[in-house]
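Task card 7
Instruction: Convert sequence to structure tokens.
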Amino acid sequence: MSAREETALMGNDSKQALVERSIPFLGEVRNRTAGKDLEAWLNTTYGPDSDLYRDLARLIQVGVLEEGWAANIEVDGPRYRRSLIAEPSADTHYFSITAVYMHSIEPYRGQYHAHPYGELNLVVPVDPGAELAGPSGWQGPGWTAPAPGSHHYPEVRGGALIALFYLPAGRISYDIRPSRSAA
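Output:
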């Protein structure tokens, strides 16, 4: 087996491990509604000191930073990339799994979008001090959970981070226009 084939196989293994590690978690949250209450619960129950957070953070960092199978499609050059890891299916309790990589020292806004059914984001700073804007303010290591019907620009500051996000039914809308107050 060539080195390239070996790397591809390892990538498939770590990608599959991430999906498999996500499935029990998705089964646990599948009937909960995203929003500030769920965000607080996620940060208390599965915050940075939890096994789930550490496992998912490690696997998504391997996918983005080492093996290149996650967040490998440029949206706005190399500082803003994303990729779909898993489509919604019965196995994933009808959540999709997507990774986003964003990098900026100054606050940087990504692509405006809406969450018809909400979103759960695992925030994994690559650089110490990197943060993602969420419904409860800036979030370093931990979770954000924008509510159903919410819409926003994803924003990062303080360096590079990865957001591993779970979307109920895979629903996300990029065809929405920002309100004047969001622009």
